[in-house]
From TrEMBL:
Protein's recorded name: Transposase IS701-like DDE domain-containing protein
Domain Transposase IS701-like DDE: from-to ranges: 11-133
Pfam families on file: DDE_5
The species this protein was found in: marine sediment metagenome
Stretches that traverse the bilayer: none
Amino acid sequence: EQCGKRRITDGLLVIDDSLAHKSGKHIEGANWFWDHTKHAHTFGHQLVTSQWVGKIFHVPLHYRLYRKEEDVPQEAFQSKLDLAIQLIEEAMVSEIPFSCVAADSWYFCDKIIKYLASICKDWVFASKSNRKICVKGLWMSLREFAKTLKKEDFKQVQITKTKYIFSGIDRVKLYTGLR
């Protein structure tokens, strides 16, 4: 409703997962998960979340509790990728205005990319440097590709008060499996 009143017509849908640390050992859905910030296993709830990001504000949207395969019946298990797709679908059903999805490298995989292509959404994901891309018919790792870039391949743009530098290189075909 606020989006319509403010004439907001587009934004970015961000998918992320977070740990909610717990100390009680008998909390439903809690388990041991790897905490990247502490570089150790931590007991808690793992949530997959969605957030809408616009020019002037961010809005938390939805979340799903991730449960490890060992904690649920086999037919009920849903991976973090499955939960991310559900969150994207829920944003669409809720008519949240977004044209692009962003996430960290965990979500950069064939399943998510193919899904986003099927619903005609752009995407921006972090990527590991060993991912393979196809540039003009030649497959190479992102690390190798980065070495081919020249200063003139980039230009600076300013959005509000922040300056960004990006490549003017057009789309490249990405292969998310290892070669």
